[in-house]
Amino acid sequence: MRLMFPVAVALTALAAFAQDVVQLAPDRVKVVFENDRVRVLRFTEPPHSKLPMHSHPAYVTVGFTNDYSRYTFPDGKTSEERTKAGEVTYSKPVTHASEELAGATSKAIMVELKETGAGTPANVTLDPVKLDPKHYKVVIDNDRVRVLRVTYGPHEKSVMHEHPASVAVFMTDGHTKFTLTDGTSQTVDGKAEDAIWGNAGKHLPENVGSQPFEAVVIELKK
User: Fold this and answer.
1) Does some domain include residue 123?
2) Do 88 and 141 sit in the same domain of this protein?
3) How far is CA 101 from the centre of its chain?
4) How far is the C-alpha of 60 from the C-alpha of 140, rounded, in Å?
5) What's the domain count of the chain?
6) Domain encompassing residue 101
7) Is the pLDDT at 99 greater than 90, yes or no?
8) Share of the chain above pLDDT 90, in %
């Protein structure tokens, strides 16, 4: 029995590490949407709030507020991180607990990347970064994702280009018209701090609103 007790403790600890942050704090972490490629979470963390030990797969975070957090890892080590409103970060899979150190509520969208196997690399020939560098800038580029910051002035339009499957996170409200390759069009009304899924495809966007528009597009590489 003495040998079984440490094993039981270890198994309990491992189970705790693997807990889902949505189940741990459903009032502060909510699922925006989920499919076979991603799970998109909305974090709303009051000042000085804490999240117990939990795990994430690789993920991209888009922050809407200035943030100051302390992370505690399974080995007891800690780190502190400051990010600014509008900043985008990428993280490899991690297990940690967190504490919000800022004096104001922290808001962010997290895009968790699901492991889908080797997959086929996305084949994009009409790259918006090359075709329209005024409106599309690369923020992060690694083996999992390419993250673009998209900015349009009032009534500005792009050129026909394409994206692989992606998640768009709206930094501002926006009223955007997308013209497709067959000549048809569709309009998307985006709300600041929201996120939507986009299948791979070609389109020509136009900001048909009277205000500047900004979004972060997280392109999936596989």
Assistant:
1) no
2) no
3) 22
4) 10
5) 2
6) 19-113
7) yes
8) 86
The answer to whether residues 145 and 211 belong to one domain is: yes
pTM above 0.85, yes or no: yes
C-beta separation of 109 from 59 below 8 A: no
Q: Are residues 94 and 35 in the same domain?
A: yes
**The tokens of 75 are what?**
């080995």
Closest to 198 measured CA to CA, from 172, 212, 217: 217
pLDDT in tens, 126-160: 999 999 999 999 999 999 999 999 999 999 999 99
Residue 46 lies in a domain: yes
Residue 14 included in any domain: no
Cβ pair 112, 106 in contact under 8 A: no
CA–CA dist 103, 45 (Å, integer): 11
Q: Which residues contact 69 (CB under 8 A, 6 or more apart)?
A: 80, 81, 98, 99, 100, 101, 102, 106
CB atoms within 10 A of CB 116: 11
Q: What is the DSSP letter of 47?
A: T
Residue 173 within any structural domain of the chain: yes
Reported as a pLDDT band with limits 50, 70 and 90, residue 117 is low
- C-alpha span between 206 and 158 (Å, rounded): 6
Domain CATH for 59: 2.60.120.10
